[in-house]
Amino acid sequence: MERPVTHSREDDFSLDGDTLHEECGVFGILGHSDASTLTALGLHALQHRGQEAAGIVSFDGRQFYTEKRMGLVGDHYTDPAVLAKLPGTMAIGHTRYSTTGEVALRNVQPLFAELEAGGIAVAHNGNFTNGLTLRRQIIATGAICQSTSDTEVVLHLIARSRHSSTTDRFIDAIRQMEGGYAMVALTRTKLIAARDPVGIRPLVMGELDGKPIFCSETCALDIIGAKYIRDVENGEVIICEVQPDGSITIEERKTARNVPERPCLFEYVYFARPDSVVSGRSVYKARKNAGINLAKEAPVQADVVVPVPDGGTPAAIGFAQQSGIPFELGIIRNHYVGRTFIEPTQQIRAFGVRLKHSANRAEIAGKRVVLIDDSIVRGTTSIKIIQMMRDAGATEVHIRVASPMIYFSDYYGIDTPDPDKLLANQYADINAMCRYIGADSLAFLSIDGLYEAVGGAKRNPQAPQFTDHYFTGEYPTHLTDLHGRTMSDPRQVSLLKEAG
Amino acid sequence: MERPVTHSREDDFSLDGDTLHEECGVFGILGHSDASTLTALGLHALQHRGQEAAGIVSFDGRQFYTEKRMGLVGDHYTDPAVLAKLPGTMAIGHTRYSTTGEVALRNVQPLFAELEAGGIAVAHNGNFTNGLTLRRQIIATGAICQSTSDTEVVLHLIARSRHSSTTDRFIDAIRQMEGGYAMVALTRTKLIAARDPVGIRPLVMGELDGKPIFCSETCALDIIGAKYIRDVENGEVIICEVQPDGSITIEERKTARNVPERPCLFEYVYFARPDSVVSGRSVYKARKNAGINLAKEAPVQADVVVPVPDGGTPAAIGFAQQSGIPFELGIIRNHYVGRTFIEPTQQIRAFGVRLKHSANRAEIAGKRVVLIDDSIVRGTTSIKIIQMMRDAGATEVHIRVASPMIYFSDYYGIDTPDPDKLLANQYADINAMCRYIGADSLAFLSIDGLYEAVGGAKRNPQAPQFTDHYFTGEYPTHLTDLHGRTMSDPRQVSLLKEAG
Amino acid sequence: MERPVTHSREDDFSLDGDTLHEECGVFGILGHSDASTLTALGLHALQHRGQEAAGIVSFDGRQFYTEKRMGLVGDHYTDPAVLAKLPGTMAIGHTRYSTTGEVALRNVQPLFAELEAGGIAVAHNGNFTNGLTLRRQIIATGAICQSTSDTEVVLHLIARSRHSSTTDRFIDAIRQMEGGYAMVALTRTKLIAARDPVGIRPLVMGELDGKPIFCSETCALDIIGAKYIRDVENGEVIICEVQPDGSITIEERKTARNVPERPCLFEYVYFARPDSVVSGRSVYKARKNAGINLAKEAPVQADVVVPVPDGGTPAAIGFAQQSGIPFELGIIRNHYVGRTFIEPTQQIRAFGVRLKHSANRAEIAGKRVVLIDDSIVRGTTSIKIIQMMRDAGATEVHIRVASPMIYFSDYYGIDTPDPDKLLANQYADINAMCRYIGADSLAFLSIDGLYEAVGGAKRNPQAPQFTDHYFTGEYPTHLTDLHGRTMSDPRQVSLLKEAG
Amino acid sequence: MERPVTHSREDDFSLDGDTLHEECGVFGILGHSDASTLTALGLHALQHRGQEAAGIVSFDGRQFYTEKRMGLVGDHYTDPAVLAKLPGTMAIGHTRYSTTGEVALRNVQPLFAELEAGGIAVAHNGNFTNGLTLRRQIIATGAICQSTSDTEVVLHLIARSRHSSTTDRFIDAIRQMEGGYAMVALTRTKLIAARDPVGIRPLVMGELDGKPIFCSETCALDIIGAKYIRDVENGEVIICEVQPDGSITIEERKTARNVPERPCLFEYVYFARPDSVVSGRSVYKARKNAGINLAKEAPVQADVVVPVPDGGTPAAIGFAQQSGIPFELGIIRNHYVGRTFIEPTQQIRAFGVRLKHSANRAEIAGKRVVLIDDSIVRGTTSIKIIQMMRDAGATEVHIRVASPMIYFSDYYGIDTPDPDKLLANQYADINAMCRYIGADSLAFLSIDGLYEAVGGAKRNPQAPQFTDHYFTGEYPTHLTDLHGRTMSDPRQVSLLKEAG
Fold first, then answer.
1. Glutamine amidotransferase type-2 domain: which residues (chains A, B, C, D) (predicted)?
2. What's the rounded Cα separation, in Å, for the pair B265 and B200?
3. What is the pLDDT of residues D304-329, one digit of tens each?
4. A145 in contact with chain B, both atoms CB, cutoff 8 A
5. Nearest residue on chain C to B328, alpha-carbon basis
């Protein structure tokens, strides 16, 4: 089940081209008079998890309201005219980078359905590994699907559940889902949060003015001055409900028991914001530790430690502190890229220009440079950045990567290239990789080095503490769609293409 | 079942304010290499049937494509970039003026669903009088509805049908629908057209380069040089299918038999374009005949016959020819209204100015004027236009209306005000109406006069030849939603409000 | 001095393609609290004089404000946010169709200059026949020109005048200008209006709430309920000034004496709105009279009189009344053309479709048709409309034109094609023209027939009562630029091309 | 002569609020087939010098072309449709942050004038200290000014010069100008560059494919792979001319001799990009040196060195290296701010949220923090950032500023607040300032410390090596407008307000 890879339009002219993409951030709040404004702010803090589109659904006691827009949260959702269309004290929101399903407003979450018991809106981050199988079953029994989003499948399962309460229907539905997800849902009285049984995708609970909040990362609490309460546990469903007297009750349910949590390592390596705390661990510290361990595992004689901005900076700081080699900003980032440069003309591409980054020649010329990057996927960017260093006069260019080599696809919401496009699968050994990218030396952090950096202990092969299949091939869940080859029936997906 | 009335924003400053609105025009074509372009042109010719939004769905042998836009067809659908997103040799399109369901892109037709047998797209003009009842039943059995459009109900009925062929499923679905409709649908190989059992809404079949076309009015055939074949009969379903060898087969089915056709009189009075031929009768001639009959029924001593543009012009020509009173353009229309004037500021409203029409003083001053209008709904516009004539120096102002008084709501796709807002229901007799609007005399065409103008014979009270309930109260179908009070459950509709 | 002809983009798909274009309408008001709103409304009523761009300048006692926009007045100027940027009790405005000077916001009037005595804004309709000669002289003495508009020349002449008062400077400047113009200007205390010595272009004075107004046509007074006072005379300058006590003084000056007025015949034939009164004569009556005279001069046996909409309608009414042949709407106009259809794709063009007009087949088929048009320029549209009539089944198609043949270019603000593109110059006689356009017969109104229709008397060859050079070659002013070949120096004009 | 201060809209919610603004970057190229594309790229690299608007003028051998747009270079200038409107092998461009003159497209540079000898376009960075005086003189002698830009004055002086060659006219004009400027100009055959006599504003010369380039900073050469040749000297004019055979000649002229260069210190402290080399000195190294010197001058006991991003980062690296205290990213920047968040609603403001920055709590809590900033202007941001650190749990917060205290206004193109708004002028001593901003300690780099960091030697009081009046009050040129109080005549400036 290979999903189509969106070959990033930025590949050829940006150092950001060769990265993985996460698709989503979620936010929800119940009982607050500024519900939609706070949701907009929370989504803004989660913008790094998805920049293609954002949506908010609110409920004002009478009616649900929805706004969906392509583009950044800050492009639309602080316009008073837009916020005014989202009244009420309950809201959930979603920001996405599209993987499954083309980008279309129709697919932008939260999705909404009218049920017999009233409306429900759902937003989720992650991916179901049996989504296509379930979709096929549902359509076979007379349902119509109007989006290509997995989330619609959840709505159908809720609608078809034989349970009577919305909570039971919701739990019934997600029990049928397999994969990694963090989900928020809104009904006429409830805000519901759910996290997958393994705890692959992150989801935290906070509080503002006594009102409950759920969001993907703690940075979305910080932006609004909310207090962190705890992580939603793996396999947990939390149901917050407004009572007739205005008070809020909180019910905790479990969809899976006795399964140890295995958070996704890539949240620490790349996705989460450095100021977030994921499953109790500082993301910044994890990255800096990775740089420290990298300096121990793969030391190098050099004059200057240069981060590949911005992802490589914490590890570079750690590497420099451990190695004693000075940390310098050898690559400068241009923050004013603008709209059309995002899709530059062929003419501009042809100049091979670097619209987003440039070498700080004064710190590079005549020096032995250690470049610190957070990860290498296909290696295409590494080639360009090494060349940029050599053009600026570097005498040696060494690459140190603060995570292990990537060999396997992700099926839990991270957009990975075809495995045969991955650098680690294209070359026999690290020396061949090093020659291909043109470096003087190349080293990756070991899997144990990364485990120690994040969690303080080596990997337990019998019961790995984290989700790490992209490095190891050990998937934490079944992969029903993949093994059932559901995707081989071309009629069942992407039948409708809609422009945004 | 009173539908919410959209109080036209133009009420206070335009002579067009006091009119009825039809919601839709439809168009479909099969097997033509320019399918989406021809659909855009056809919808443009049908633009008078709905100006709020337009949508097109095409199929290219692999995939369905859809584009939906608020605004005029000519605002979007000749942009090559837009047409390029609609490849394929099969397409259907829809242009709408919203009545049921708020205006939202989500509600813009055609609607699309993935079925087990493949995708289907549906567009329709009209209204189902049991749509809410059916929607309620469907939701009660586990379906989710994502729009507030009646058309979605048709899609659900098709998906749930126990028949196996798409054609049988489609017929099964529309047999459950009650009301007035003209519908086109597109599957992976078929273009389907269907007209309600009574034939309330119009639908014609044409041909271009040997390829079948269905559209609401003949003017959509004329614009692309297509040939008129015949009207789709009341209660008929026509299925055109592309065969593997590229040939097209045509199958004719009946959902109702032995029911005489009763086309809607208002198509002749107001909605259809004057150059269209509806159910075999020239719309222009019908209107001119109405003016001739009006001059016979309600003659008046006057110096000049002035049409209320543009609807009253054909009747005014007939009235002038019959009466011998000269026809003159006493009211001039400004064609350049622009975007923001459509919603003028309070300051501009306050000037009471006429942004779209003005008196041609030289033809009015010192004269006895007969104004010819196509219809009077609430009378609000009549007041303004009579005042405009007096301000320009008319010595007498007589109103002659080329249709009978309107007493009843429509439930078949025409947006009518609350019955108690209708002029005919607010005043005891025609003299009181005449005083209210400020005219020197007022007369309406009789129902028999209109029947003769359109069909050549008086009304047959036992079996009326036309749909005429707005004048007579005799509805041609059941009104299940109205009598079942389905709308009284507030949770079941309009739960989600979405901005366009 | 041949101006570049803008080959209308509509040529190939609209009946409006073969027309002349006027470039401007002007409006000004002094001392009214709703100055900019009234100016917007006045410009809206003058929209038929130019649809490419509109601008307004206001003054609030401290500062001048300007807004310029491409597009219709109603697209921008009733947005409260736009009107709020134009505060003050004095304003002038301009709506333009571009001829001289490319279309660029830089060229959109009113133009403004800071003078030593304070700012001045100027808007004008018309064209200077010595504008390029003066521009050359000015640049030679150290001025810089930032637009390609003739109006900038007026500003330079005002700035350079040796007179001290602004009024004297203004009169000094326009005394140097030659050609046809109607001008309004705004200073910190004054509203000034000026009309060329021959009175080619129209300009009227009105009053609202005791405050003076100047505008191109009376229809701009009617829209705001203002009272018509009188025409600005040919060669007259009227200066309205706000006094410190708030009262308004009015001074009348003459730049030319004892020159009889010769208004432009084309205002009556084509440009002015039918409800306007130009130089005391109803435009609608003039056109209808032209139709009556045409029926007398060139009668024809036919079944139906069909106007070419909308310009030919009044003449067709006159022709029908005089001839006794019935007047019918044989051509239907689509009012919903939209934005992108204005520039249709090649694909749509290729269908040869008529996006704006269609034949009303029921009134044409089997009939002898007399088409009445207001004018024929190149004949390209006539070919298409005659073909459209034949396609709809007309047995004969006769063309009657309510103005004489056009042989000569205009230099006073009307955009005329190269003389050798004019139908009248391409064929030896009227029979050849008739064959070229494909009609069964063709006739034009005589020059005396037009003079009588407009002014009640035949043309006086010694002192023609109207400006009529396009028909006769007799220009009412010098043509300095043309004879001096100023335009032959390519460096002096159009050096800068700016996109709007 | 106090210029109106644009109170930054970001003051209340961003750490970037309390900064100075430079108004412009310039770029020009001659003889290259991709002239306008290269100009767009160069302006993109100079985007940090001005983000409000950008303009390009090109010449194709026949005609000049111009495009001006509000917003970022990358928002408009890689659209192929826009670049296609700028043909030719010669172009100049400009990116601006507005100070003098309201922001209006009319004021966006390059400005263009038709002269007798042909057209000329001019773009400049800087400000004339006698611009208003000259403008007044010019208007008094009959010129008209259409913008409020100083650059228009240069055009007038060129137009009025008694010299015959364009080069001589240009030099004649700039010899009359006083102040700080870096200018590029384009005629039909020449690209001209000029730098003010003192060399306040930067301007460098480069070469690509043998074709000359001028631009504000070397980073604009790097982005297109061009080679740095040399700085344009203070008081130098360089004229590059295309010869009829296609070769390019280069002429060097001097408008001032024997004046030592005094580049603006603030280019090193704040404005220039860290990877640029200004007057032969690496900006990054100068900033890092300032941090080193700051650690020597004002050491502090602390646990962590935290840069105020992004300006304070190089100095923080230097401070950390010198002091041995670890450098950590204690403040995280959100790069996805979007359009509407730039002007947040009152509701969002009220949350006191930080849309662009947040504390990295894990690195701050329980620590003694040294914040390193590049400069302090009013101190408003310092208050917020110190509070943010305390909220995140810092036990002590020390501020070290890598430049001296600012006491005086700039008149050479930097937008400074009223002197009495400057922190240094509001409090008696540094202890009072420290209390006001809420820090535990506060220290600024000394003027000698900054001179040494940038130039390697202490300040020479008799002949200062740099422009440093904002710190010292010693202005390097006359301030004619200021002392002549030209601005006191309210009629002479800003008479026309135009919306962009």
1. 24-243
2. 9
3. 999 998 899 999 999 999 999 999 99
4. yes
5. C317
